[in-house]
């Protein structure tokens, strides 16, 4: 009886292995195919990632500067109305024009009132501003604002109110 039992047990094991192999082999092939696809996707992803990084580096290098040739600057004629119209055409305020030209708001106001005329590199910045689109103007302003915020991010001292005195890092009440 033990012999029949072992024969049946061995036959069941053989049939079970055969069934498992028949189910497992197609799955193994499918997994192998998926691994190949994944490998290909990873390679293409790394290529795209390198390309994207290169593009961002190139974009950073292509910083938009407000520069004009000396001939253009010499040939340009700026009246107060033209300066005001240029500013309005670009959709910027006097403050933003002052930031772009590297002057104070008072200087821009004086240019627009006709008290003074822009000279030198300030005039060159206005000439170059003519060639730049509104979108690029906004980008330049955002870059300058970002650079300014990085410079101004110093640690501030705690405010000391009346009736208080500062000792070291602590503020004590009197």
Strand order of the largest sheet: 1-2
Which structural class is indicated by helix and strand composition?
mainly alpha
Global outline: elongated
Q: Residue ranges: pLDDT <50 for 5 or more in a row? A: none
Rg over CA atoms: 36 Å
DSSP strand tally: 2
Mean pLDDT over the full residue set: 85
Number of helices: 7
User: What proportion strand?
Assistant: under 5%
Helical proportion? over 70%
- Tally of distinct domains: 2
Would you give an account of this structure?
The chain has about 170 residues and is mainly alpha-helical. It has two domains: about 1-60; about 70-150, 434 Repressor (Amino-terminal Domain) (Orthogonal Bundle). The chain is about 70% helix and about 5% strand. It is built from seven helices and two strands; from the N terminus they run αααααααββ. The chain has helices at about 1-60, 70-75, 80-90, 95-100, 105-115, 120-130, 135-150, and strands at about 165, 170-174. Strands 1-2 form a two-stranded antiparallel ribbon. A hairpin with a 2-residue loop joins strand 1 and strand 2 (about 170-174). It starts with a helix and ends with a strand. The mean pLDDT is about 85.
Features:
174 residues, 71% helix, two-stranded antiparallel ribbon, 2 domains, single chain, mainly alpha, elongated, 434 Repressor (Amino-terminal Domain)
